[in-house]
């Protein structure tokens, strides 16, 4: 049975860890909010699971504790920042706050960010935007990472780039956060750590053989993750991988063409866009159309004994609501990984719910 923790108790723990690592309280609170939001929504590989790596980057690695992003371009509705390895969740939250301030005037605000330390779960940034009545589209890539192959190839070329979209609805929002590869690197690492196979043959070893063995990705020599569509239809996922790299790297003017990007570790290039549906008509009209889509999907016919189809965001929003009420069930290894950091930083571990 999973051990549950109240949101407030976990938030206290994570904020204290980041403050003990030297981060200002306001920034520590932003990081904690983003990581816990991911767990609330059910994205367990990119929530509190990422706290340990972020502590390591702050104390022993490239992350900057202080400073502001450099503004490279700003035309009101469009801006481009160089984060210079500031903590990803804080930088992206700042960019979204800036976009939210500007979107009532412009209707659509678009931004790119380069050299942001790993930004974790894209879906975790979406609830405040949904609650404000806006849409958001986000993607990111990792210039130094090569894990996903092109269709028909076996060389690891792209990063496992996610694409997230969210929009406000009446009962629940549209919300998805999906990788452009068959699986994400976090799930491969988890399977290898736990000594299990992947749920399907979604990897290629260095010789190009399709496999479900997670060890094939790391090698040596390194293998690759196949793009969405796999062996037969991976040209679709490969095209989407390229699209996300164009949006996040090419628009931002920094990425694989720059030799120094190879040393950027897990730093991300980011694309985000906040859209005001009311700028195109009215929020009520928008929600009416979204409700029709939701009803069409969830009410569609299924085979006897099969569950009803889910609309993207339906389960995540329900999961979030339940965990806010009943406590967050952390994935089993997360506290195990954070306990050494708690000892090192003299921070008390969270107290589980009775």
Automatic annotation (TrEMBL):
Source organism of the structure: Kineobactrum sediminis
Upper taxonomic lineage: Bacteria, Pseudomonadati, Pseudomonadota, Gammaproteobacteria, Cellvibrionales
InterPro entries: Mal/L-sulf/L-lact_DH-like_ah, Mal/L-sulf/L-lact_DH-like_NADP, Mal/L-sulfo/L-lacto_DH-like_sf, Malate/L-lactate_DH-like
PANTHER family: MALATE DEHYDROGENASE, OXIDOREDUCTASE-RELATED
Keyword field: Oxidoreductase
UniProt name for this protein: Lactate dehydrogenase
MF term (GO), any: oxidoreductase activity
Superkingdom of the source species: Bacteria
Transmembrane segments: none
